[in-house]
Amino acid sequence: xxxxxxxxxxxxxxxxxxxxxxxxxxxxxxxxxxxxxxxxxxxxxxxxxxxxxxxxxxxxxxxxxxxxxxxxxxxxxxxxxxxxxxxxxxxxxxxxxxxxxxxxxxxxxxxxxxxxxxxxxxxxxxxxxxxxxxxxxxxxxxxxxxxxxxxxxxxxxxxxxxxxxxxxxxxxxxxxxxxxxxxxxxxxxxxxxxxxxxxxxxxxxxxxxxxxxxxxxxxxxxxxxxxxxxxxxxxxxxxxxxxxxxxxxxxxxxxxxxxxxxxxxxxxxxxxxxxxxxxxxxxxxxxxxxxxxxxxxxxxxxxxxxxxxxxxxxxxxxxxxxxxxxxxxxxxxxxxxxxxxxxxxxxxxxxxxxxxxxxxxxxxxxxxxxxxxxxxxxxxxxxx
Amino acid sequence: xxxxxxxxxxxxxxxxxxxxxxxxxxxxxxxxxxxxxxxxxxxxxxxxxxxxxxxxxxxxxxxxxxxxxxxxxxxxxxxxxxxxxxxxxxxxxxxxxxxxxxxxxxxxxxxxxxxxxxxxxxxxxxxxxxxxxxxxxxxxxxxxxxxxxxxxxxxxxxxxxxxxxxxxxxxxxxxxxxxxxxxxxxxxxxxxxxxxxxxxxxxxxxxxxxxxxxxxxxxxxxxxxxxxxxxxxxxxxxxxxxxxxxxxxxxxxxxxxxxxxxxxxxxxxxxxxxxxxxxxxxxxxxxxxxxxxxxxxxxxxxxxxxxxxxxxxxxxxxxxxxxxxxxxxxxxxxxxxxxxxxxxxxxxxxxxxxxxxxxxxxxxxxxxxxxxxxxxxxxxxxxx
Lengths: 384, 384
Hints:
Two copies of one chain form a homodimer. Helices cover about 20% and strands about 30% of the residues of chain A. The first copy, chain A, is an alpha/beta fold. Chain A folds into four domains: about 1-25 and about 180-335, Molybdenum Cofactor Biosythetic Enzyme, Chain A (3-Layer(aba) Sandwich), CATH 3.40.980; about 25-45 and about 150-180, Molybdopterin biosynthesis moea protein, domain 2, CATH 3.90.105.10; about 55-140, Beta Complex (Molybdopterin biosynthesis moeA protein, domain 3); about 340-380, no CATH class. The two termini of chain A are about 40 Å apart. The first copy, chain A, is elongated and about 90 Å long. At the A-B interface, strand 10, helix 2, strand 15 and helix 3 of A face strand 10, helix 2, strand 15 and helix 3 of B.
């Protein structure tokens, strides 16, 4: 029982988290891949677009033929054809020639620029007046301008955004290898906690953590599996944790609010087959009672029962674990972005522990200020 | 045909968007409400937590009994009981008395503070030594500290986050009224565009917009309904748009890449029963060819075929429309947040139109810089 009360630093816990390996991948249809985590680097199998393409409606030209032309001194080119969309032009351009082309059309051989239709006038069936000079490369996209064969375009671990799906589509990846979503069992405990449908009497409150954690798990890329509310009862908790361990890669148990509750959580976790205690107590506020036990392939996490502390501990420890299982970096609060700001007032801080303080960002005379929210620890309204 | 070529400003289009009314609501289970849009203000039906609650493990006291005590000069209180979790204590506190209490426990009558267990020592069954003074209110949460009956806690239009679900749970809202998700038909067109599984020949590209738009719709709170790829063929387009209009509140048609394609899109939209042209062309780059036709209760939007322009036009016009249908504010790019930054170099800009330029944010000597990405218009890699 020795490691029981060896409180660790946040950095020590994160060093352990970085050692967690990703779950196996799975293949999904491209239309279902949004928000999922790319499992392998995306390497361009071929150049993109693969041919020179017009970026504007107008005329494909040899740029040199337009040098020096202007509104007052236009030039005249011979129209030799029109580029059909989706086809390689059957003709090439010689000096003094041009061809009608639409946005996205393939440039004919010999053309090296596009003149926008706004700067031209068709004089007859064969003659086009050009009133603006073009430089080589104007209004076109080169054969490798989107991507070059062999280039790494997206790195494994990328959460796929709309534009990433577009890139995968452009390269013909109708199915994509993505990280499997970790299944996360969610258990709430506490003798004073009632289901959401119940009407609390004096001293009682409704179960909040099941709902905050389920959605936080979803937003972190996991699949929440709600196991419900269990009283501070050792046998019932052991059975529910065992159930969760049988099917879920991660189990979150929040609560244990009675004074012996935290020890109860550790006892329940350590009674599971193959249980190994990794963390019991962290020098951090809130989140100090965090417990992490590995049992076989499953991770059992004990989170504070107090609702705001529970969510902070989730983002600080549980979300990085989910990210590691998904093959991502596992930075705490990584999904939120970072900003630096000046504290609007001094904050006392206890030596020897990290503190996470909720703040409201505001601006004053061009300086970004972080205004600490001094709600009580349980004030969920202090989580904006 | 008069309004056909009356190019509107972005502000004019947004004024029209603000006139769009929300779709009817629906009730969902609280566990399914994450990411949905709250349809009605959440008003606290009762005080929260409704009773004074300990925020720490320790002893409930009358603060006045601890005034002046310290490590070197501790005070002594008589232990009169222990508060059971989830129950109203059957006893009250008189002067000089204290009661054991766990985090979340209900304070007995007469108690007005909690002393943390770390600052106490149980001397015998009846006597507790206190070595730190408490002020009234220390380490407790008052009956209305979380919420006061009648207070508006969440406003209609709020996209529900984990902590919002927690708040709804605390107030017993097992089911929630949320905005219905708009169904959005997605059609890609263009003779040069092939399905993602195909191998493009010269002059051909794969369908990208179906995938970017489907995920962008999902992230904006809509339900994408993929109708697939249609050639630049008037009859086929009319039929597919009619299909979409029959079941979807919004239809997105991207492309029409041939030089006559944009007129074709307008023609196809205006051929639908009850069609009314709201916008045809906007003084903006990219996104100029944007078309908006209302046909009955359905909105038909024409977006540029070029993949980066298509996504910008989506965020600029289609996403605000979806937000309005969801009962939200409908700010363009509202979901992304705003930051001000200094341009890293001068950008020329055409008079009379708004320009949306993709930039990369970086910092230099403490100044936030926006570095314009001068990719070609089609470079999707320029959408980070």
